[in-house]
Amino acid sequence: MRQPEAGAVAVVTTPDGVRVAVHEWGDPDGPEVLLLHGVGQSHLCFARQWGSDLARSHRLVAYDVRGHGGSDKPLAAEHYSDGRRWADEVQAVMDARDLRRPVAVGWSLGGRILVQYLAHYGDGRLAGLNLVGSRLIPDTRFSGPGSLAVPTVDPRDAGAHIAMAEAFLRACYHVPMEEADFARALAYNMLAPAEVRSAIRAWRADPAAAMAALRNVRVPTLLTHGRRDQVVLPAVTELAAATIPGAEVSWFEDCGHAPFWEDAPRFNRELAAFVARTRTRS
Fold first, then answer.
1. Angle 212-216-217 from CA coordinates, rounded to 5°
2. Domain total in the chain
3. What does pLDDT average to in each consecutive run of 10 residues of the chain (282 residues)?
4. pTM, 2 dp
5. Any domain includes 175
6. CATH code of 135's domain
């Protein structure tokens, strides 16, 4: 596909001093959508959202989470194993970019980050949640074979790092990327150091605290999951749907871990309709 423009970029400093790169597209007065990506990814994974009609009528904001993309990449594990740091990062972006009540969209790691945000800040600043292919309850029984097969690599072994990133990226898509898109995705995946990936993989959040945060959600919630996901098993979305009051579920039968890319037209329609429904409740 022809790549759309990358969007305006700003730098936001988190309370613990990490600088994150934030990008924006669309109508500055439109409904706000905050996009959080998965491990190894960056804001660029959402090109089929900010390069679509969504950007004509919505204010789309995506940032590279710590350790990824154009953001700072501290290597010490404590930057990735403390839920409060993740939550504060989300809040810092919302405050700095004057996001009043966005719909927060969290893919994979992005969903886990939003659970930490809910646990520490609640959902009072959010209009809604769209949680996509995310292991919202941090229990390894919900990790799929595509995740479990990813090896820990020596950060000094560049070849092993590339091979690991390529294998994981291919596991994310049941509908394969075109090779040009895959090459671009592999390039931005390689921006995440092996130490960062290992630290996030070792992060052991509390499942009971995550369940409590999900039970306390009161904003509209849409859970999106590909039935053929090999990274995060669909069973976790079934459990989340039974835990979050009033949650809706959208199953993408022929998609893997990335339905927002694999079937972008449907995903974008559903996201736009969901955002519209949240506005009728405001």
1. 125
2. 1
3. 61 98 95 98 97 95 98 98 98 97 98 98 98 96 94 92 95 96 97 96 95 98 98 98 98 98 98 95 63
4. 0.96
5. yes
6. 3.40.50.1820
